[in-house]
Model the fold of this input.
Amino acid sequence: MKLILALGLCAALTLTACGEHGEPTGSVCPPTQTLTYVNFGKSFMDTYCVDCHSSTKTGAARHGAPAFHDYDTVEGVRQTIEHIDEQAAAGPNAVNTIMPEDAPKPTEAERRQLGEWLACGAP
Ligand code: HEC
Done:
């Protein structure tokens, strides 16, 4: 209930004023997991995140994306795994849709894949 109230408030304010976090998704790395940066993570990040979160972008080109949250390399992803999980991934405990702010947005199935890939340590 508290969470729903908080989310309602966030929607009323601007995202930047809010700086909100979602919930950890509780995703687990499945024993049969096959997702890698090469076959999943890179295209996910390139499609949905690097317009703003890229080490090649500065100033206004980042559209407000915070420093040290750069997803144009797998190393950048691995540095903020928990933050990404809480902003954009889905799993048994939460479906987080705070990021990306604008279209194109990933499907829930893609968000679940993201959660699993992150839970495996973004291999
Ligand atoms: C249109 C630009 C844009 C896109 C695309 C975008 N972001 Fe963001 N991101 C932002 C901005 C702006 C903030 C700062 C928001 C705030 O402080 O409320 C942010 C903040 C974040 C944070 C830090 C939150 C924190 O304070 O811990 C994470 C993690 C994040 N984004 C992940 C992602 C991921 C993952 C994707 C792709 C699925 C993505 N973002 C796509 C603009 C973007």
